[in-house]
Specification:
Layout (H helix, E strand, L loop, with lengths): L9 E5 L13 E6 L17 E6 L38 E4 L2 E6 L2 E5 L8 E7 L14 H6 L12
Antiparallel strand pairs: 1-2, 1-7, 2-6, 3-4, 3-7, 5-6
Length: 160
Amino acid sequence: MARYEIESIATVIEGHTRVQDDYQGGIESIIRLNDAFPLETLQGIEEFSHLTVTWHFHLARPEDVQLHARSPRGNPIWPATGTFVHRNHRRPNQLAISYPRLIKVDGRDLVVTDLDAVVGSPVLDVAPYFTQMGPRGPVHQPTWPTEMLATYWLNASERP
């Protein structure tokens, strides 16, 4: 297999402080661009409502990876599905992609909401979300993701 070495371009410096499955909404986060990049690299990004953020599950361990079919969240009412059907830290490269709303740009800081990375998460890439680059054609999925994620984006202050 080919190996790639990449460096983070930014870090999540404010936002969620604990890894949790649900209640990710309502938290303002800050993604801070590394000093190695000139501010000009962000020029124009404030014109977009949403970003595409690729980040690393930095708190996960290599032994967390699971290369077999399993029920999402260990819930037997949902079907066992393979590693590449899950969207969590148990994937081989332990990467995630989120689509937070951009609230404002303040120098090197991208202030966002609806980012499910935690403080300290290395950000590998940031790009504006272009609707033309989203899914083409009708989107379909089985019912279990809708059931599993019913409370995922609820406001964090509503956590029981």
